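[audit] Reproducing an earlier prediction to check determinism. Same input, same settings, fresh worker. If the tokens differ from the archived copy the diff job will pick it up downstream; this log only records the rerun itself.
[audit] input (130 residues):
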Amino acid sequence: MKEKLRIDKFLWAVRIFKTRSQAAEACRKGHIYVNDVPVKPSKEIKVSDIIKVKHKVIYRQYRILELTDKRLGAKLVGNYIEEITPEEDLLKLKMYYEALRISKPTFKGRPTKKARRDIERFLRGGERDY
């Protein structure tokens, strides 16, 4: 087991970012904190450090349980990090996604023939056309 590891490599290995370069870019932009200090991609982390990752409108928080530099399967990630994001922040993120879902139209482009008939039926007050 390793004692220290680069933050960008760890964030990629535990599937917080799809690529290591995305993890490094997030560090450079100041979206990653380790123990409440903004870090560069080369920052070495250790077990029990707290990582904050900017995600949309909140910072997700993780505690490091074990280090790895190999990319993990999704089922194994829980052995290496523990999410400790406060419940109210997760609720705020859920509300953000709900607002996005509500504001977007449910279809794009022209409606299909069936959708057009459903719209017309709705506008007429539920009458069926025969």
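[audit] rerun output stored. Observation attached for the diff report: Residues 27 and 40 are 5 Å apart (CA to CA).
[audit] end
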